[in-house]
Design brief:
Keywords: Kinase, Transferase
Largest sheet: 7 strands, mixed
Strand order of the largest sheet: 1-11-10-9-2-8-3
Organism: Amycolatopsis orientalis
Number of helices: 8
CATH topology: Rossmann fold
Order of helices and strands: EHEHEHHHEEEEEEHHHEE
Number of domains: 1
Helix content: 25-40%
Radius of gyration: 17 Å
Protein name: Uridine kinase
GO molecular function: kinase activity
Structural class: alpha/beta
Strand content: 15-25%
Shape: globular
CATH architecture: 3-Layer(aba) Sandwich
């Protein structure tokens, strides 16, 4: 794979241009996917907010971490089960129903910004947000691709196997990331792939 070194600021600029070029959709869903704690998915999604607003888009930031299942379901097989981390932690049905379906053509545009507080293990009771036409949802998280979630732009922050082992904070979860790489191959599914072995010196994949 061929990668082009790119500064974080230029990456944000290029992604902003890519998002604003999406004109065939009334509302836009953007996903930034990568290993939690080892890639800067949150920072990248946050950095896109202001440039998109300057470009005239209403923006709603959403974290997949606010759509986890209750602890009783996530930890049914223990708190350090990599297979559960991969298949059972994220409430894909809720993300689809509460966030992505309202963005679809003919959807209501009323998006639920959060569902579950994983720290307090209780519903957030958040109110729905009306996203106007031209609005953008920026969603960050892990294991977002390959499960049928519909995004208008998919960005994957990729780590080499060595960097993943070096940087992932939950080492017990390594088999989950390896399984994701093997079964889903997120680099093949993503519109934009960024190598982030060194988070301060990313490189964008050039096909």
């Amino acid at each position: 794979m061929r990668y082009r070194p790119i500064s974080p600021a230029l990456l944000v600029s290029e992604l902003t241009e890519r998002i604003t070029a999406i004109t065939a959709r009334r509302r836009i869903a953007v996903a930034v996917d990568g290993a939690a704690g080892a890639t800067n998915t949150t920072e990248l999604a946050d950095a896109l907010v202001d440039p998109l607003r300057v470009a005239g888009h209403a923006v709603l930031r959403i974290s997949a971490n606010d759509f986890l299942r209750p602890a009783s379901l996530r930890f049914e097989r223990g708190k350090e089960d990599p297979d559960a981390r991969y298949t059972d932690w994220l409430d894909l049905g809720a993300l689809r129903r509460e966030v992505l379906d309202p963005l679809a053509e003919g959807g209501s545009g009323r998006v639920l910004p959060s569902l579950w507080d994983p720290v307090r293990d209780r519903a957030t009771r958040a109110e729905r947000v009306e996203l106007p036409e031209g609005g953008v949802v920026l969603l960050d998280g892990e294991f977002l691709f390959g499960a049928g979630l519909a995004f208008d732009l998919s960005v994957h922050l990729w780590l080499s196997p060595a960097a993943l082992k070096r940087r992932v904070p939950d080492r017990w979860a390594l088999p989950a990331y390896e399984r994701y790489e093997q079964e889903v191959d997120p680099t093949a599914l993503s519109d934009v792939v960024v190598r982030v072995d060194d988070p301060n010196h990313p490189a964008r994949y050039e096909p």
